[in-house]
Structures
1.
Amino acid sequence: MSTPPEQTPAPEPRKPADWEPLIRAGGVVVSILAALISGFLEINLSTLRSGDLVTIWRGDAIGSGGGPLLGLSILLAGGLNWAIAWFAVTTTRRRWALAPPWALWTLLMLGAAGVRTDEGDYLLGGENWVALVMILVGSLTYAIFSYRLILKRSLP
């Protein structure tokens, strides 16, 4: 006769690691870094002129070419800020995650508008209409995203 095989208790299933706090913190950190990088990019591109499309290839600085100002930084402020706001709220599943990148981006723009370079120029001057509209559009983008979150009462 055969003897039944020895019964060993089944191993208990492992409890999955709770990654949610780490993902939330990572989402906030990435959104803050993205707001910082996009802010610096938008500040640099606020002086982009149509003549720069040729002079940049020769190694000249942005803003050294002639022609009218291009509003590329306005489009970037609207698009990138919307994407950063969506990313922050979606990864953290919390509405408050919108506040840190919004505050950092706004403080960066206000600081750039009030800081003078060594030559005495402002980083974002009052005569640069692209910079002024960029600040308006960027801040309104965060505000509209926040307002839509309040109205929908659900996260994206």
2.
Amino acid sequence: MTVKLIFYYILWSIRLGIPPWYYFQINAEWYNKEKGFYSKIDMDKHIPLQWRLQQCYFDKNHLPAEFPVFLKPEWGQNSNGIVRIDTKAAFLNIKIKSKISYIVQQAASETQEYEIFYIRDVDNLQQLAVLTITQSINQSDERYPINNIYNSNVMYQDCSDTFSQNELKKITSHLQALPNFRIARVGLRVNSRADLLAGLFHIIEVNLFAPFPINLLDNKLSKKAKHRFIKNSMHHLVKASGSIPKQHFNRFVFFKKIIKHYQSKVK
């Protein structure tokens, strides 16, 4: 799947005359040059208060008000390095060997988890050229699971087509409360579909660095549908990459990302 995404991205780059390496600069405005990554602490400031979970830097001298909580590297992808802490004792005894700072994030109380992937329409910033809504379904009995592509208990269900155009417009209007990210995958917790439409949810993650469209992991989607989605979405992503103000470009961002990926792992 990744190979097809790369293939069509390069193909559209050639057709549109936009350098393919712009891919690594997609959301350059929100990249922290001093830290060398997209900081979750920085991102927290861009999330509206009603959707924001309490989070702060990990410090054993400042105990959370309640448990469980999640420890996360300040930068990471695909839930890499995330640990759930269920008790005070576990919080005080955990040892994290990482060159990247860790944050403590409050556990969202909602029961359902969704991944919303989108690419903005560069010709009309108030519109999304691509929007998918995928539910992360954990088949275990864990109350606060860590859902990711490596968890064998997790399956992904693309439910984009189950929403009407008016409902998709409501979700799009919620996403407009975030900055004008060119591409993003927003993870959120919610209690029901109605609450999702009403904007009653908590955002647990905003992935900005080349986020994978998680709907492609739905095994019920046909190969034809996946192929059509990849071809279309990469077209819009290349167009988005051509809209990046050059003053925000960051040198060696790809190599920095690889380094930070390994530094964020818990050992």
3.
Amino acid sequence: MTAAMEMGAARQQGMQNIGETAKASGVSAKMIRHYEAIGLIEPAVRTDAGYRVYRQRDVDVLRFIHRSRELGFSLEQIKTLLALWRDKQRASKDVRAMARVHIEELDRKIADMQAMKRTLETLATRCHGDERPECPILDDLSLG
């Protein structure tokens, strides 16, 4: 059976190739392969020719991961969230607790970034921005 025939048969079973899965999920083919390599997602079903094919449930998992990444969750946190998502007996308080911890982490990161911004604004204001070589920005960076 040719590769094209294999893909045709896979499509009849509701499967799609990695490119189609990437488009449907919003996750690049490269990241899909990476997530498989690190065990975040189950290994793809493969055709006899070795092509990866995916079911709708795989697309759903990848969408979940994509949205979790958009919200800034780490891969380790996503593993936990996926386990909670799959566990229909879970307590929602566990998910909420994870979200609250993540919110605190985001608040710290935001505060750190705001401090960086203020420092750079001060340094940029002190820099003459002319033809002279003196530069408070570079001077500050050299102190680090």
4.
Amino acid sequence: MDLFSRSWAALRTAVADLPDEAFARPSGCTGWLVRDLVCHLVIDAQDVLITLATPAAAEPTRDAVTYWEVSTTPPTGDDPLDALTVRLAAAYEEPWLLRFHLDDVGSAAGRAAALADPAARVGTRDEVFTVDAYLTTYVLEWTLHHLDLIAHLPDAVDPPPEGLARSRELLESIVEAAFPASLSDRDALLIGTGRRAPTAAETAELGTLAGRLPLFLG
């Protein structure tokens, strides 16, 4: 849960530090500008608040690895929620409005996570998780979206190294294979989730794993 807080705080700080003109630049999410991604983070923060306020009595049905719906097909952008996110982001008009909303809702989500009982059970997406498992999924979510946020912003700060390392571990558990030690945590995440293509040398080092990548997490 501490890693959730650190990853989330770093991502929100990265957004707060963006110059206004950066909001109109492409993000690492195909088809999304930075402003669209920030709007998505607002929705994510709302989901965290909703889930932490949705207790469940049943036994957990998923954990931080099985939470994800995994596909080898990239998203098309036709998902209604994706389209809604783009329209909603455009409606903000001014970057400061998005910054304010993310800071407002995001701070509340961070406080709710810090106060939650890690062993408690919560429900989301018709599944039951422990709070600890649910928040651990967001370490991967926040880290990937931090990389998306700064994909075309070379002067921006990277996600926390401990978040990158934990996210790599989660992705390796999802793919049920280890990435080569020669790949940094950052590169393993980018290549593993299709955010960049591997070089010829990296493909050779990946071996048979290269044929199973990339994975698209939803």
